[in-house]
Amino acid sequence: MIIKKVEYHDSSTGEILREEESKIEDLSVRFKIGSGKGQKASRFSKIFQMEDPNFEVGSYYQYFFKCLLHLEMSTNRIVTFTNGYGNPNTPLNENDFVKLFKTSKKTVKNFLNYCKEKDIVAKVSKNDELFGYIINPIFALNGSKITSMLYVMFRSSGLDDHIPKQDLSKLHEYLKVTPREEENIFLKN
């Protein structure tokens, strides 16, 4: 949930005239497990993996597994977990990956670039500050639902096939997007 705070100021004095606070809630949808057309929506799972990333370099599986041990619930960010209330988890940066993988910075860059090219991982920044490296929920998911942000980030990798139809239609309506099959029909005509 995001809390948005808006202050209205007097243009001549700068005095605060009024403050408004509103809550913006994200839409989360269920994610299917298993294979085939009749899958059921998944229950919460610490780490659930649907597809093999098919790494061309064997050691990348080792690095990916270590990333999964640092997967934040609901966001799928790779983080250092913090203890205590009010202390947010810290996203891992390239130097943190060097320590975690016990390898060189060049190897970390090669691994992350490969993952970004294959849509396995996305790097997200806000105002030029690292928000985190986020894993595509098709390859790993910490939880039982994906947020609209995860959907938008990895939609082109076939997420529609892994979301129950009723949830998918709600998600499309919420995001004001066209279902993939309709996009394909439009593109063919």
Outline the structure in words.
The chain has 6 helices and 8 strands; from the N terminus they run βββαββααβββααα. By secondary structure, the chain is an alpha+beta fold. Strands 1-2 form a two-stranded antiparallel ribbon. Strands 3-8 form a two-stranded antiparallel sheet. Strands 4-5 form a two-stranded antiparallel sheet. The radius of gyration is 20 Å and the shape is globular. It has one domain.
Please report the distance between the alpha carbons of the first and last residues.
Answer: 40 Å
Largest sheet: 2 strands, antiparallel
What is the mean pLDDT?
A: 82
Order of helices and strands: EEEHEEHHEEEHHH
Strand order in space, largest sheet: 1-2
Fraction in helix? 25-40%
Radius of gyration: 20 Å
- Overall 3D form: globular
Number of strands: 8
For the record, the count of structural domains works out to 1
Total number of helices: 6
Beta-sheet strand percentage? 15-25%
Task: Give a topology summary.
Blueprint: E1 2-9, E2 16-24, E3 28-30, H1 59-68, E4 79-80, E5 90-91, H2 94-101, H3 105-117, E6 121-126, E7 129-135, E8 145-147, H4 148-154, H5 165-175, H6 180-188
Antiparallel strand pairs: 1-2, 3-8, 4-5, 6-7
In short:
This protein is of the alpha+beta class and 189 residues long. The protein is 31% helix and 21% strand.
Question: Features of this protein?
Answer:
189 residues; 31% helix; two-stranded antiparallel sheet; alpha+beta; disordered C terminus; globular
